[in-house]
Amino acid sequence: MRVIVWVLSALVAAQTNTGGSVRPRARDLGLSPGMLETGALNAITDVAGVLAGHTTVIEGERSRTGVTAILPHAGNLFREKVPGAVFVGNAFGKLAGSTQVEELGTIESPIVLTNTLAVGVALDALVRWTIARPGNETVRSVNGLVGETNDGTLNDIRGLHVTREHVTAAIDAAKPGAVAEGAVGAGTGTIAFGWKGGIGTSSRRLPAQADTWTVGVLVQTNYGGRLTVTGVPVWRELTPQRSSGGHPPADGSCMIVVATDAPLDARDLKRLAARAIYALARTGSTYSNGSGDFAIAFSTHPSLRVTGATGPQPRTIMPTDGVSGLFEAVMDATEEAVYNSLLKAVDVTAHGRTVNALPIAPLKELLRKYGRVQP
Prior knowledge:
Layout: H1 2-13, E1 51-59, E2 63-71, E3 82-90, H2 98-104, E4 106-107, E5 111-115, H3 119-131, E6 145-149, H4 164-173, E7 191-192, E8 195-196, E9 198-208, E10 211-222, H5 234-237, E11 252-260, H6 266-279, E12 291-299, H7 324-343, E13 348-350, E14 353-355, H8 360-369
Parallel strand pairs: 5-6, 11-12
Antiparallel strand pairs: 1-2, 2-5, 3-4, 3-12, 7-8, 9-10, 10-11, 13-14
Helix pairs in contact: 3-4, 6-7
């Protein structure tokens, strides 16, 4: 019952601020990076078959953390691996399972995001969840993929509050459809640009001859720099309060998960993941020494699922010369996902500290001043 409450509380917290009013997404403010259309939900789950779920862990006055899980498809991921890749912008962080993805170019487990000190328990839970799936009775090796950011400012991270049950609950809660954003799941205790960060998502659709490909992005924002929104230097006029004064710290991390139904192999998926990291610069990231910036990308194209030593035949792979549009799509979607993570976040208090959500009314005025939204 407690796990159910955690999951449901995530959905509620994503929609309201401390006053109970609904907080907007970027599109609600008229912000729409790029020229491409979004999918129906403007979320990573616009890529058909992709599922996402959260467990939010809020206990007492000290625990503000959680888990977010992304599944490339609802089948047996170990038996039907998807092509995947990892791009490391700065390796100040922990991405368990990345070396095998780099070596083999496949992903065989759900992708789990959590806090820094919960990577071990999340990996344990992933292994247990995978070997318990029907058809995996003889499995003796599992490459679980777990990423993290450090939420230790708001969360009692040394308390090790994330359990195997929390991880399993996030995986089991993963579903198609709308994705809760803001201070939920792995974004419950994160901070971005000194404001409350969290989970954000967005998507883009790319017409390509007879096909239309979709790119979806989910971010866990916990990094710094100087916040910029569609080119507007928000940091100049709208700065979070800090007892020590000055600009928000630049350190932190960002985890990015990229999904596409385009038939990309591991080599071009890595290039796609790289563009997601590059897109953080549009939002004001300074890629500091302590900012661990990682992107994981995968393709859901059915012909590329690996079910044996060589995978199914025939395989469809997009020519390298055809990927530029996807690069544009992932950069625009990543930028918007970051904005959504900030806009949907709420004020969070823990450890005697309060980290405020980005205030909507002053932001609107600033965007009007720079001509980004209608007066």
